[in-house]
Fold this sequence. Notes:
This protein is an alpha+beta fold. It has one domain: Beta Barrel (At1g16640 B3 domain). The chain has helices spanning 26-30, 37-45, 82-88, and strands at residues 18-25, 50-55, 62-69, 75-78, 96-102, 109-115. Strands 1-5-6-2-3-4 form a 6-stranded mixed sheet. β3 (62-69) and β4 form a beta hairpin. Mean pLDDT is 70; it is low at 1-18. GO terms for molecular function: DNA binding. One of its GO terms (cellular component) is nucleus.
Amino acid sequence: xxxxxxxxxxxxxxxxxxxxxGRFTTMHFVHNQDLPTDFAAYVRKRRFKRLELQGxxxxxxxxxxxxxxxSPKKSTTIGKGRKDFCIFNRLxxxxxxxxxxxxxxxKKKIKVYxxxxxxx
Length: 120
């Protein structure tokens, strides 16, 4: 699978202190699986209870609840709001999404870049 940035994921624009928090296919996001390790550590460290997700095309901001569990094993997932975000951004299984935070953005606002998978 080609993981090079698509036009919607333009990384040539200088954005101060962008942190890529996780990259995974929407299959994981759609089915409420654990967040990637770096993303989970980022939200746990800041003790977030909610996140504001915004798509790469500046779609509406969706408030999402974080589900943080410490036992029996550590688990961090995005709960309520996740499905709405998928619908608003027309995400389908196989799309690659990248979560990024910027120092200039509000603390709990996460930008989500989407690379659509194409079937041939």
